Known about the structure:
Order of helices and strands: HHHHEEHHHHHH
Strand order of the largest sheet: 1-2
Shape: globular
Strand content: under 5%
Mean pLDDT: 82
Largest sheet: 2 strands, antiparallel
Distance between the termini: 69 Å
Number of helices: 10
Amino acid sequence: MSSKILVNLCISLAITNIIFLAGMQPYALKVSAACKAVAALLHYFLLASLMWMAVIVFKTYQSHFILKSSILSWGLPAVIVTITLAINYTNNYIRIEHAQVCWLSEIPFYAAFLAPVGTILIFNVIMFFLVILRLIAMQNNKLLQHETRRLRFLGIFGLFFLFGLSWVFAFFAVGEAAEVFQILFVTFSAFQGTFIFLFYCIYKKDTRDIICSCICKQKKEKASKVLRTYKSSGSGDGTAEMNT
């Protein structure tokens, strides 16, 4: 997987979380213009995050398309948000009083957010199961070692979070089971960044080697500095004794 795609996904997720944490505060809720700005930015970066998840899915079967992916993933959400802002003089972004959040009004929510999110998730789910079927076919190969099978299983588990499939729980959060699916959605979505870090940074051997080499280098530099200080101190003491 291209590290550039993963970096773009992490950037969009990070900005989404920052906007949510900083924007859903009393000072933003009280000012209409600020509330609309927060809602529009949240709308944009949520769509951008899901678009980058779809790009990662597509990357499973394609390569060398980072420029087109960037234009699509950052550009298409911008078009959707711009159209949403232009229609109805920005009044599609409102303050929802009972929830105390800045977000889309009902009809724009379904048209400008739920529809594209649903489309992306359907694509991601289909591709996810195609990947699983391909891996199952490979599992039947007797030459495939046990360690490789274990890694592929962990890979599937990691793809679940990377493809953004935790968003599927949000679509099932209706009726009597709403609370259960809401908890699942919040839990898995909140830890998406953590899972990406574990599976695609810490779990990769080359990343661990780089981290270890940096730590070892720092330790060597620190030990060398202490040794130089000790030698300098010892040399100074010896000179003082000779003068005495």
